[in-house]
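Same chain as my last thread, 81 residues:
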Amino acid sequence: PNRVEYRGINLDRLQALVDEKKVKDTIDIQVLRDNGLAGKNDLIKILGRGELKAKLNVTAHKFSATAQSTIEAQGGSVTTL
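reply #2:
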């Protein structure tokens, strides 16, 4: 009953946003909602599947260890809400 449900978004989806020129270097909850990746009440967890080539500053509720290390390895930063 106390389990928290997160909406998982993979790194390859974040890279697709960059490739489509929808974001430059910052991804936050509002950007994900505006692009239809999350609903307005979703808690968001960034997952590590896929390849990330861009340097991004990502803000989300939770990060997998793989996603966090990949984002930081590209020179980006993670911010946990």
